[in-house]
Amino acid sequence: MQSIRSEGGRADKQLGSLLWHRGLRYRRKSQLPGKPDLVFPSAKVVVFVDGDFWHGRYLEERIARGDFKRNAEYWISKLRRTIERDQRYTIELEKAGWRVIRVWESDFQRVPAAIVEEIAQLVTKSGGERNTSSFKS
């Protein structure tokens, strides 16, 4: 587990690329709690792209189905701690004045345009800068 780095996955890179092409500028590296995938400092918006398995989506349903065959106690405990940690970071960031957006990876893969639009609206409404010079006419 120590060798797993928080470099981001394919989905958050695709999301970042789509937002960049919309003219929205963000940072990838920050000292903020939870290491958000995308940070829009001027709008005070952060985006996390959470993998369904690693961040415990449908955890209770998976437990009920018996999806965890090996080391069930370990994995269930680990995923519950991850869920609690994600909630803690969200609260901490919100208390500091940040708007927190959490996107499930599978939702982004299913409807990327809707998610990009939702983030773009929130960032621009919150005072985020748009760089329109990157658009090609």
Categorize the overall geometry.
Answer: globular
The biggest sheet amounts to: 3 strands, mixed
Percent of sequence in beta strands: 5-15%
Using only C-alpha atoms, the radius of gyration works out to 16 Å
Provide the succession of SSEs: HEEHHEHH
For this structure, the CATH topology of the domain at 10-53 and 94-134 is: Endonuclease, Chain A
Q: Which assembly state applies to the chains in this document?
A: single chain
Mean pLDDT: 87
Order of strands in the sheet with most strands? 1-2-3
N-to-C span: 47 Å
Class from secondary-structure proportions: mainly alpha
The count of strands amounts to 3
CATH top level label of the domain at 10-53 and 94-134:
Alpha Beta
By DSSP (H or I, 4+ residues per run), the number of helices equals 5
**Helix content class:** 40-55%
Topology:
Elements: H1 10-21, E1 38-40, E2 45-50, H2 59-65, H3 72-95, E3 99-104, H4 105-110, H5 112-125
Parallel strand pairs: 2-3
Antiparallel strand pairs: 1-2
